[in-house]
Design brief:
The structure is a single chain. The protein is an all-alpha fold and 122 residues long.
Length: 122
């Protein structure tokens, strides 16, 4: 599964500006992940891979598409996305994710709050 996740991250990164297009992104995710598209562990691995590449825009687009696919948001996925924003110096986007956490009734924890503060401090 690790190889599949790495390949998915590479392909999503190659989409560049097109990653914002739901259809292309959803098709790429489905092509690589198939039925694992709603598996929190697989998505977390994908986010970690995107974080290594500092791909905040792609990670945010992935999260938006998955929300539309009814993937239940949790503190781990949202914290991972905030950390990607922090690594990418995308503090505005980290605040956006923080607001979305409230919209999805995801409870904050210390790690998430520290990541947001750290992202805004850069």
């Amino acid at each position: 599964m690790e190889l599949i996740v790495r390949q998915a991250a590479r392909d999503l990164k190659c989409l560049g500006a097109e990653a914002a297009l739901d259809d292309k992104l959803r098709n790429a995710l489905h092509r690589h992940l198939g039925t694992n598209m709603c598996d929190h562990h697989v998505i977390l691995s994908l986010l970690e891979e995107l974080g290594r590449e500092r791909e905040a825009t792609v990670a945010l687009s992935v999260m938006q598409v998955l929300q539309k696919q009814n993937l239940e948001m949790n503190v781990f996925l949202t914290s991972a996305t905030i950390n990607i924003c922090r690594k990418s110096s995308a503090w505005r986007q980290s605040l956006q994710v923080l607001h979305e956490m409230a919209d999805h009734c995801v409870q904050l924890n210390t790690i998430t709050c520290n990541a947001v503060v750290s992202a805004c401090g850069k």
